[in-house]
Amino acid sequence: MDKIIDLERHRTAEGRADVAIIGGGIIGLSIGWKLLQAGKSVAIFERDTIGSGATRAASGMLAANVEVEPAEDDLVPLTLASQELWHGFARELEAESGLTVDYRDHGTMIVALSRDEVDRLRFRQDLLTRLGLTSEWLSGSVAREREPALRPSVSGAIFCKQDHQVDARRVAAALAAVFRKAGGQIFENTPVTSLERSSGRVSGVVTEAGVFSAQTVVLAAGAWSPQLVPGFELPVRPLKGQSLAVRMDKRDPALTHIVWTEQIHMAPKGDGRLIIGASVEERGFDAANTAGGIFALLEAARRVLPSIEELAIDEIWTGFRPTSLDDAPIFGEIGVDGLIVATGHHRNGILLAPVTARAISDLILKGRMDGPETSFTLQRFRKNSDRMTHGL
């Protein structure tokens, strides 16, 4: 039975479940599916439509190797753990939903076009090696053999075989399907306006359509999460990203691997789209696509893939990465009984969905998190603040 609640037909969103999840993106959906599999009753509240926020804007990269940055050593065990979960997660999701998520295991390539870029790419490979990550150095000629449409001036590349991709929008559709199939309730176009409190704990969510009671509330609203917990310092902000897609010939696609440069990434999808992204802008919730932003993406793409000039623009969009102070996710309790958060995933929301679902479901079902997840509670920011206060 379809469990989507259309408020044009249902005037109330009142009810009760074991768990109410605020946010219907890949994080909220993954957590909800995991809890339903464990026998919990779950309801998801989405301010817009399912998968319409950062999930819809995402390129779908599962890039634990390519995405790593200096000073992110602590994040690597978490991203690797989730990357290892993804293949099984995708296969189970496709089997249960009957839908494809376009899981593509061609690998990811970072290319360089100048001597300076080659030097910086060598430095990046040294970083990957130091962190125990696997990469392969390719000469310019080998890189062009694998991707013949690359500009002839490509002079070197790193290839990360383990960095795969999915179609994030297809993943959201499949997750919604299995969630409904398992008996979960989805309230779309139903913003949560506040949290219901009773006897000193969170006991549900408040919407314009009514109060929905729950034993546990999970806040997984991405960049909008801090708005639901006024008075608490939840250090998450929106980081704007503009992206676009062009349409390739499915029979002869311009690219088959994900290709990165210093400025952009390009992710080819099974339906013929080539996603080009993404800008990084501190603009709050400004959703405007700008001429400068789109021009910069196209110019950077043309620099490495000249044939981009001939491809039709399919879509242009903006998304908001939920970014914490250290660009890493925040899992767990924040100091109020009955409330758990799962937010701050920055650019890794798609990659970290399986491990986030594991972390939050473990916390609800067993009362604790295990593995690398335990390093990513809100407490880490408080400890850093204490160190600064005491001069440590």
Topology:
Blueprint: E1 4-5, E2 15-22, H1 26-37, E3 42-45, H2 54-57, E4 61-62, H3 76-97, E5 108-112, H4 115-130, E6 136-139, H5 140-146, E7 156-160, E8 164-165, H6 168-181, E9 185-187, E10 192-198, E11 201-207, E12 210-219, E13 236-247, E14 258-260, E15 265-268, E16 273-277, H7 291-304, E17 312-324, E18 330-333, E19 339-343, H8 353-366, H9 379-389
Helix pairs in contact: 1-6, 1-8, 3-6, 3-8
Could you explain the architecture of this structure?
The chain folds into 2 domains: 4-57 and 169-234 and 326-389, FAD/NAD(P)-binding domain (3-Layer(bba) Sandwich), CATH 3.50.50.60; 105-162 and 237-324, D-Amino Acid Oxidase, subunit A, domain 2 (D-Amino Acid Oxidase, Chain A, domain 2), CATH 3.30.9.10. Helices cover 29% and strands 27% of the residues. It is built from 9 helices and 19 strands. The chain has helices at 26-37, 54-57, 76-97, 115-130, 140-146, 168-181, 291-304, 353-366, 379-389; strands at residues 4-5, 15-22, 42-45, 61-62, 108-112, 136-139, 156-160, 164-165, 185-187, 192-198, 201-207, 210-219, 236-247, 258-260, 265-268, 273-277, 312-324, 330-333, 339-343. Strands 1, 2, 3, 9, 10, 11, 12, 18 and 19 form a 9-stranded mixed beta sheet that branches. Strand 10 and strand 11 form a beta hairpin. Helix 1 (26-37) packs parallel to helix 6 (168-181).
